[in-house]
Design goal:
This is Extracellular protein. With about 800 residues, the protein is mainly beta. The chain has 4 domains: about 5-400, Jelly Rolls; about 405-560, Sandwich (Immunoglobulin-like); about 570-685, Immunoglobulin-like (Sandwich); about 685-815, Immunoglobulin-like (Sandwich), CATH 2.60.40. The chain contains 6 helices and 58 strands. Strands 1, 4, 5, 7, 10, 13, 14, 15, 16 and 22 form a 10-stranded antiparallel β-sheet that branches. It has a 7-stranded antiparallel β-sheet with strand order 2-3-23-6-19-20-21, with no helix packed on it. Strands 24, 25, 27, 29, 30, 31 and 34 form a 7-stranded antiparallel β-sheet that branches. Strand 24 (about 405-415) and strand 25 (about 420-425) form a beta hairpin. The chain is elongated, with a radius of gyration of 46 Å. The N and C termini lie far apart (about 95 Å). About 40% of the residues are buried.
Length: about 800
């Protein structure tokens, strides 16, 4: 365990021997407005984390005296700056400074809405006394309250920590009278919920001595003297009775080496329970026979002082993030959660283990204890010091306060070389290769608030083994706001691997919107023969009214192997013909992959994952494959990969030649192959069309004319145009008609291809006119009628004597793919 308990044990022994001989302590009743001047305080203030000024949002007044017994009538809390002076721009609250002091500082207005999510981020200083409860006592509490005294609300000092009731245990000669539950309750901060950070174990089982609460000189045995019996943290070892109305995690008292964190209801009478001393070791408190214990909810032991940072240095300031989650509709059960020691003083994430690790908890909180009709209460901090002359000042510095605004920040890394692989804290694959192009992204978010987040000064530590890469204009980063506007960050703002820049825009209800992303262009560097594990790197965003911080995720830069990844086109030519909008079109990219030393990608049980990146136009596509053997062939169908017919043909428009590049990535070994290029030539697809005149007239004939074949008297156009399409041209007809009466017995249409051909009578059965069995890559037009003479082509044959009149008929021409018609 901890040697720090020894001092308490020794004090207990001394007290037991000298029973009844009490050390008299009087309270400091000076008004608070003096600067902090102790050298210890000044040293601590100099090392204080950056805090936001709070005098515009917080205030206090002296408390109201309850009765003649009440000696807690001053308020030690004041706002100071890092010099210790009172200042309207002060960013630190000094709650208790000097022996037996106590104080509270509250939001000036009831600005904490318990029906909304709220966050407060702050740094707490309890003291740095090594192995000394005297220096570090008594502690600090975060409090929500709806007390009628408003900013003057204040509880008792000492074990009361400025929030709990006054344990006014009377002493009269040789008799002692314990305080009453009702008196303790009414002297506490009313209608309140407290999250205490208690640095002293105020227990009857490890007693120091009853502490005299009277202000002024006291002579032993004088009447009307009151003491704090100092036992609120006494653990009774029994469960809290369900009849008292507390949750299942409620316990009598609390413990822990140099403290604990717990939630309490200070203004609730049932929170204070009397315990009997008779017949046990606690009779060291004679002549008192009983005293009061405080019920704690979800108490956790915590090392609130004497922590060490990751370099072994004493850690004076402890960061805490407190979050409030409102009750569900119709319920009064909200939650109060905290993360204590979640950040180091430089705002990097605390990754320590043991006593100095991050401590977190989520506690149910009954909002009915606040007795608020509109859901609005005050928030603030209270604290108290013990009686030792060298007791430490209790200090609080704020990153954010709930009635102002709530902001946060997050970070990720994107490896653009590995097809925009994103690395976050939760990623399982955090490997990048030497030389990979990286984007370091920092997202700033305005969550809630009454004012905008202003004057945001970004301070970003670039991760180790990462080199920032300026663009042609010497800019290293871009800020993109949610409204679409942007600004650049110059390389001149990068000093000693730290980028510092004040954002030109505010975040919140302003035109820039509620979020911004800072993107830093960089490159991973590993010139060693071993993998490099890059640690998290801190970034802070400090505005005039809120501070947010984050850490870039840890990642690994792989060592560059002594072999290469070779990619080749497995075809003999880099040119690929693509037929525009062909129904069965594909765009196959044949590739061959191997290592320069010809070692294997593995077998079916130990293969290598390969990612191919294909760039076409202004877009890059990715497809993964599993490689085996010493040579790996992969054909990539780019059309299927694009998977958008319209986008594909817009890119590969007819009559164009486009470059398509391919590279392969072996992320497991940190290898990127050479890039190969294909020239894709998009040609017109197969076409087949026909041109034919709408009308055809034959030579007039007089009655009795017995000419067998009548020639055409009008010109006639008939041609077929094709690309890569063998074809056949056919014609059909129903014959000639006069006044809707058929003349098939008198006349018929015939076709004679050339002078050496026979006459073919046209009918409803298709007659082959012409055909082309070849396939040409260029457009070819065959003018069929151009070679017709008066004795060839389409002719009209007389079969007998016809009635006078104008004869009409219809020819139906059909051109078709000859392959489909064979």
């Amino acid at each position: 365990m901890y040697m720090r308990n020894h001092l308490r044990k020794n004090l207990w022994t001394v007290f037991y021997v000298f029973i009844g001989i009490f050390t008299i302590v009087s309270f400091n009743t000076n008004n608070v407005s003096a600067a902090l001047t102790k050298s210890t305080d000044l040293d601590v203030l100099k090392s204080a984390p950056t805090g936001i000024p709070v005098s515009s949002y917080m205030s206090n007044t002296a408390p109201t005296k309850i009765d003649s017994k009440d000696i807690y009538t001053t308020n030690s809390a004041q706002i100071v700056d890092t010099t210790g002076a009172n200042s309207s721009k002060g960013n630190i609250v000094s709650l208790a400074s000097g022996p037996n002091t106590y104080g509270s500082m509250w939001s000036t207005n009831k600005s904490f809405d318990i029906n909304k999510s709220q966050t407060i981020s702050a740094w707490l200083y309890f003291g740095s006394g090594t192995d000394s409860d005297a220096i570090n006592s008594e502690g600090i509490s975060f409090v929500l309250q709806n007390d009628k005294n408003g900013v003057g609300a204040l509880g008792a000092g000492l074990e009361g920590m400025g929030v709990y009731g006054y344990d006014a245990s009377g002493y009269n000669i040789l008799s002692g009278t314990s305080a009453t539950q009702s008196y303790i309750q009414k002297t506490a901060i009313q209608n309140s919920i407290a999250l205490e950070f208690d640095t002293a174990n105020n227990s009857f089982f490890v007693p120091t001595k009853p502490i005299n609460n009277n202000s002024g000189v006291f002579s032993f045995g004088s009447l009307g003297t009151y003491y704090s019996l100092d036992g609120y943290d006494t653990q009774l070892g029994s469960s809290v009775s369900s009849s008292l109305g507390f949750s299942n995690d409620a316990k009598y008292g609390a413990s822990g080496p140099f403290g604990h964190i717990a939630m309490t209801y200070p203004g609730l009478a049932a929170s204070y329970q009397s315990t009997d001393f008779t017949g046990n070791a606690v009779n060291a408190y004679s002549p008192w026979t009983s005293g009061f214990v405080l019920i704690h909810n979800s108490s956790k032991a915590a090392m609130l002082v004497d922590g060490k940072d990751q370099n072994g240095n004493l850690l004076y300031w402890h960061h805490v993030t407190i979050k409030w989650t409102p009750p569900a509709s119709g319920s009064t059960n909200g939650t109060l959660s905290y993360n204590f020691n979640d950040k180091n003083p430089d705002y990097s994430d605390n990754t320590m283990t043991g006593d100095d690790k991050e401590l977190s908890n989520t506690i149910n909180a009954d909002t009915s204890k606040l007795n608020s009709t509109d859901g609005k209460v005050r928030w603030g901090f209270t604290a108290a010091n013990g009686p030792a002359t060298n007791v430490a000042t209790k200090l609080v510095a704020f990153d954010s306060i709930p009635d102002l605004l709530s902001s946060d920040a997050d970070a990720n890394i994107v490896d653009t070389t590995l097809n925009n692989k994103e690395i976050t804290d939760s990623s399982t694959d955090k490997k990048v290769g030497n030389g990979d192009s990286l984007e370091l992204n920092y997202d700033l978010n305005y969550l809630t608030g009454n004012v905008d987040w202003k004057d945001i000064a970004a301070k970003i530590k670039i991760p180790d083994n990462v080199t920032v890469t300026p663009d042609a204009a010497n800019n290293v980063a871009t800020i993109t706001y949610s409204d679409g506007s942007s600004e650049n960050i110059s390389a001149s703002e990068l000093t000693d691997s730290t980028l510092q820049h004040t954002l030109a825009q505010t975040l919140g209800t302003s035109a820039a919107g509620k979020s911004a992303r800072i993107t830093i262009n960089a490159k991973a560097v590993n010139t060693t023969t071993s993998d490099i594990n890059v640690a998290k790197s801190v970034a802070t965003f400090s505005g005039s009214n809120s501070l947010a911080s984050t850490n870039s995720p840890a990642f690994t830069i792989l060592a560059t192997p002594n072999y290469k990844l070779n990619l080749a086109n497995s075809n003999s030519s880099n040119e690929i013909d693509l037929l525009y909008k062909q129904d069965t079109a594909t765009l196959d990219l044949p590739t061959t992959l191997n290592y320069s030393d010809n070692h294997s990608f593995g077998d079916t049980s130990s293969s290598t994952n390969i990612v191919y990146q294909i760039t076409a136009g202004d877009k890059t596509y990715q497809v993964a494959s599993t490689a085996t053997g010493t040579k790996f062939d992969q054909t990539i169908n780019l059309k299927s990969l694009i998977n958008d017919d319209t986008a594909f043909w817009n890119l590969f428009a007819q009559g164009t030649t486009n470059k398509v590049t391919v590279k392969a990535i072996d992320a497991a070994n940190g290898l990127v192959s050479n890039t190969i290029t294909y020239n894709v030539v998009t040609k017109q697809d197969e076409t087949l069309s026909m041109t034919v005149s709408n009308n055809l007239a034959f030579k007039d004939v007089n009655y009795g004319n017995n000419t067998e074949y009548l020639p055409r008297k009008s010109d006639f156009d008939l041609s077929v145009t094709s690309i890569r399409e063998p074809w056949q041209l056919q014609v059909t007809t129903n014959g000639l008609y006069l006044n809707s009466q058929t003349l098939n017995n008198n006349m018929t249409l015939v076709y004679k291809k050339d002078s050496a051909s026979q006459y073919n009578t046209l009918s409803t059965t298709p007659t082959l006119i012409d055909e082309d069995t070849t396939s040409s890559d260029t457009s070819t037009t065959t003018d069929i009628a151009d070679d017709w003479t008066s004795n060839t082509g389409l002719l009209l044959k007389q079969l007998g004597i016809s009635t006078a009149g104008q004869y009409t008929g219809t020819l139906t021409w059909t051109v078709s793919d000859s392959v489909n018609n064979t």
